[in-house]
Design brief:
about 140 residues, alpha+beta, Thiol Ester Dehydrase, Chain A, seven-stranded antiparallel sheet
């Protein structure tokens, strides 16, 4: 089991609001994606590194629990926790208000490894990712 945590602060832009003046629900997935990319960057294994290793990790499943709405100009903290890399990548997320710490959204994603050339599923992480995760263990 891997445990690697990262976080990102995002300020809610005006164009993410819906007619009710709250963040449209679909935009939360965008915030999770931004935080996931930041987590891999902090891990020093980016999506470009995955591609170079001949593997892609498309999202296979995502669960979201909406707790509270976000508003224009609000600063949110998106925390990611990489839980596992085999047989698939499992990440847990928590979005909180950056100032108050109040919970806004909880989520979990599962990404399946796919051979970038053949499209076949793979169930082992690339050796480079395994090594990086092993070095991150405390």
């Amino acid at each position: 089991m891997v445990k690697f945590e990262s976080s990102l602060i995002i300020e809610i832009p005006f164009y993410d609001l819906d007619p009710m003046n709250v963040v449209w629900h679909g935009n939360y997935i965008k915030y999770l994606e931004e935080a996931r990319c930041e987590m891999f960057k902090n891990l020093k294994y980016t999506y470009c590194d995955m591609r170079d290793d001949g593997v892609a990790y498309p999202i296979a499943k995502m669960d979201l629990k909406f707790i509270k709405s976000c508003h224009f100009g609000q600063k949110i903290k998106v925390t990611t926790l990489l839980e596992d890399i085999e047989p698939c990548i499992i990440i847990k997320y928590l979005i909180t208000d950056a100032d108050t710490g109040e919970s806004i959204l909880k989520a979990k994603s599962m990404q399946i490894g796919v051979n970038a050339l053949s499209g076949e599923s793979i169930y082992q992480a690339p050796e480079r990712l395994k090594k990086i995760c092993e070095e991150c263990r405390v």
